[in-house]
Amino acid sequence: MRTTLSSLLRTIWYNRSHMFGKLKNMAMKKLLEKQMKGVPEDQKKMIMEMLEKDPALFEKIAKEMQAELKANGNNQMAAAQKVLPKYQKEIMAVMSPEMKETLMKMQGGGAAGQFNPNGSIRR
After folding, report:
1. Does any domain span residue 42?
2. Domain carrying residue 100
3. What is the pTM (predicted TM-score) of this model?
4. How far is CA 47 from the centre of its chain?
5. pLDDT value of position 90
6. Which member of 11, 68, 84, 90 lies 3.0 to 4.6 Å from 79 by CB, making a disulfide possible if both were Cys?
7. Helix ranges restricted to H, 2-117
8. Biggest alpha carbon–alpha carbon distance for the chain
9. What region does 122 belong to: left with phi over 0, alpha with psi -120 to 50, or beta?
10. In a domain, 48, yes or no
11. Tens-place pLDDT, residues 68-114
12. Rounded to whole angstroms, what are the CA distances from 6 to 12, 17, 19?
């Protein structure tokens, strides 16, 4: 009887956390879709795929950017320029080869601003 109760409690706890994790991801997805109204479809798709692959990474980035926004008086560009380079390798690791290729095309195909094979930015 004790083993059954214990396993039942573990199952309930797992399902509860799993359900709230999915709910949280759905809410984050809807919020992002609302924020990306003017973004082209291919870029939206790429961002959503990366978010689905590693939601914890993007949650960490979002929290750090929020803190930076408060420190910089809501200057989004300054916050992004300070926070995103810290996570460049992790973001590149989440991207599929197709996504990396698409990113290169979006940057114009020239050498300026492209990523090196190791994930650093070519200048």
Report:
1. yes
2. 27-106
3. 0.62
4. 7
5. 92
6. 68
7. 2-35, 41-53, 55-71, 76-83, 88-94, 97-106
8. 68
9. beta
10. yes
11. 888 878 788 888 888 889 998 999 899 888 888 887 777 765 555 56
12. 10, 17, 20
In a domain, 1, yes or no: no
Please give the structure tokens belonging to residue 117.
């094979």
Tens digits of residue pLDDT in 1-54: 444 555 555 665 555 555 566 777 777 777 777 877 888 888 888 888 888 888
Exposed (0-12), middle (13-18) or buried (19+): which is 58, by Cβ within 10 Å? buried
Tokens describing residue 44? 């939206």
* Tokens representing residue 63 in the block: 């929290």
* Total domains in the fold of the chain: 1
- Position of tokens 């690791």? 93
pLDDT score recorded for residue 32: 76
Q: Is residue 12 part of a domain?
A: no
d(CA 86, CA 43): 21
